[in-house]
Design goal:
single chain; 236 residues; mainly beta; 13-stranded mixed sheet
């Protein structure tokens, strides 16, 4: 892609965007159990991130999503709590297109890495689609992040329309060693800043909605724009 086309792409943003958010990721003394229940002490003290709804033209429900993050020397921990009155997740195999289901995502990269990040997209079954994205030229779908742990917990019935579900949780642990291909220092130090965005795809077509931590600014619903990713600051 030519530099001219990249400039045009960067200009395709909505006006009056909010500031890029910052989140302090606190070190946890006791790792959470990756079971999807979110009752560990780590999540009781972690500050919540409430997702926003950037695209009013979408017809899906505006259902609340809260995410929390923590870290230790081995893993980055992420928890999602999703309100959902009709939980749908049809894809069951690793690297299936989970983003077509009720799904949550994290896009993340260490410092000094430009337009290259990992994507992890996980449906309500805890099925993972992971990749490396050299944005915007190429998405490497066959790239696998080893050692990732994840679990989901559903409050309702899966793939059964007509009843009233309550929601679902997803819990995730990403080993720092997975970032060794992107940086010589994959374990962050207190004060380090990484870029990341957290997203949720909710509902199925044609009634579907994308919500996010940091508004990507795109004219149409699209979470991929690393210049608008939020800042993760690692603290003790």
């Amino acid at each position: 892609m030519s530099p001219f086309l990249l400039i045009l792409f960067a200009q395709e943003l909505r006006p009056n965007l909010p500031p890029i958010p910052t989140y302090e990721v606190h070190r946890t003394a006791k790792p959470p159990r990756i079971d999807g229940h979110l009752d560990d002490g780590t999540w009781q003290v972690a500050k919540p991130i409430v997702f926003v709804f950037p695209w009013d033209a979408q017809t899906g429900k505006k259902q609340r999503t809260v995410a929390k993050l923590a870290w230790d020397n081995d893993y980055l921990y992420v928890a999602y709590e999703c309100d959902d009155t009709d939980i749908t997740a049809l894809h069951t195999l690793p690297d299936d297109p989970t983003y077509k289901d009720d799904a949550v995502e994290i896009f993340i990269a260490p410092p000094k890495v430009k337009n290259l990040y990992f994507g992890l997209e996980m449906n309500a079954r805890a099925v993972l689609y992971d990749y490396l994205y050299a944005f915007p030229q190429r998405l490497f779908k066959n790239y696998d992040l080893r050692g990732v742990q994840l679990a989901a917990q559903i409050r309702g019935t899966l793939n059964l329309g007509g009843d009233q579900d309550q929601g679902w949780n997803l819990e995730l642990a990403i080993p720092w060693r997975a970032f060794a291909d992107l940086t010589d220092q994959p374990v962050p130090k207190p004060g380090d800043r990484w870029i990341a965005n957290l997203n949720r795809w909710d509902g199925t077509e044609p009634n579907r909605r994308l919500s996010q931590w940091s508004d990507s600014g795109q004219l149409k619903p699209n979470p991929h724009y690393p210049d608008r990713f939020g800042q993760l600051v690692f603290v003790e």
